Amino acid sequence: MTEILNIFDDDAFSMMSMSLPLEKTQYIPTMATTVGTFTRLSVPTENVAQEEMDHATQVIQTSLRGEPRTILGREKRDLRDFKSVRIGQTDSIRAAEVAKVRQFATNQLESVQNLVARSVRKMNRNMLATKEMHRLGLLQGIWLDADGSVIYDYFSEFGVAQPAEIDWSGTAENTLTTNVRNLTRSMVASLGGIAAPGMEIVGLAGDAFYDHVTTHVDYKDQYKATNEAPSKLLDGSVYGETIVGRGASGGIRLINYQGNTGLNANLAITSDECKFFLRGVEGLFQEIYTTGESMSDVNNLGLPVYAKTIPDRDRDEYVDVDMDSYPVFICSRPETLRRASLTP
What does the alpha-carbon distance between residue 304 and residue 306 come to, in Å, rounded to a whole number? Predict the structure, then answer.
C-alpha cells in the first residue's frame, strides 16, 4: 500500500492508505499505420500540388512504305492542388488546478510541469488515434474527418470509378481460391500490369470476414500438406494475420483489423467486410506535412507535430498547451483498391 496525503482534511495533511492507482486508457488501433506503405514528406507550404503524367503505350497500326506514319501521342499531364488541414488541440492549465492538489499515485503536491506533461501525453494519444483514422480511410481511397464527412474522395479527385464490391460469401470448394486469383489479377491490371518488386496485396478484414476465410475448405486444404501454422496472432493481441492462396502470386496477406468504435465510428472495419490495397508501391499512399501557422514556422519544412506552451505573461494565472499537425493524406492510385463483403 502507498501512503498519501489526505487532501480532504484541509491543511492537516493526515495520512491515509490507498490501493494501487488506476489510470484508465483506451486501445488505440495502429494496424493501418503499421501495414500501410505511406511515403512521408515535408514541404514548406500550406498546400500540396500533385502532378500526374500518363505515359500511355500505343499499339501501332502497320503501314505501307511511303504512307504516313502513326503520330506519337503526347503525354497527358494533370496538376491537382490539395489543401492541408489542421489537427489541433488546446488545453489551459490554471493556477487553481495546481494549488494543494496531490500528484496522481504519489504523496507529492502537483506541479505545473507535471500537468503540462500529462496534457501533452493525452494530446499525443489523441493525435495517434486521429491519424490512424485518416490512414485507414486513405487505404480505402477516401480521406475522412472525425465526424464522418469527406475531406477528399480520391476516386472523384482522379476521375476514376470506385470498383464494385466483391462477393466473397461462397463456401463451396474452389470459391475462395477463385476469389483470390481474380482479385490478384484485377489489382495488378489496375496498376498497368506491372507488379513492383516486393509488392504484396494486403486485406484488412472485419471479424466475420476473417473467420469466414480462415475456416473455408480451400484455406484448410492450402495448409494441410505443410507444417506451417495457418495463421499467427499479432503481438499482444487475439487478432491474427495469415497468407491466403499461396502460389506463384504469393497470395494475399489477410489481417484481422482490431478497431475501436468507442473512440470513433470510423476506426474499424465492418465485421463482414474486407479492404484490399497494394503494399510496396512507392507513392501510392502519401502523408505530407505542411508548414505550421507561427511566424517561426513560415517557409520551413513542415513537422509531423507542433507542440508549444503559451504562458500568461500579463497575470501569470495560466498556461495554454497547444498541439497541432498540418497533414495532407493522398491516395494517388485509387483504382488499385478493392473491397469485398460477405453480404454485398
Answer: 7
Residue 13's pLDDT is: 33
DSSP state of 109: B
311 pLDDT above the threshold of 80: yes
- Residue with the bigger pLDDT between 245 and 319: it is 319
β-pairing verdict for 338-341 and 273-279: antiparallel
Tell me the three cell numbers of residue 319. 498556461
**Cα pseudo-dihedral 315, 318, 319, 324, rounded to 10:** -120
For residue 188, give the H/E element and its range: helix 175-190
Is-contact 101 110, C-beta < 8 A? yes
Question: Which is it for the CA torsion 44, 50, 51, 55, positive or negative?
Answer: positive
Cα–Cα distance for residue pair 110/13, rounded to 1 Å: 15
What is the 8-class DSSP label of residue 334? G
More confident residue, 11 or 137: 137
Strand intervals (E) in 117-230: 142-144, 150-153, 166-167, 200-205
Distance CA 231, CA 229 (A): 6
- pLDDT exceeds cutoff 70 at 230: no
Q: Which one-letter amino acid corresponds to residue 187?
A: M
Nearest one of 286, 294, 336, 19 to 184, comparing CA atoms: 336
Q: What is the DSSP string of 196-217?
A: -TT-EEEEEE-HHHHHHHHTSH
- Which pLDDT value is given to residue 207? 93
CB 40 within 8 A of CB 305: no
For residue 158, what is its C-alpha cell? 482522379
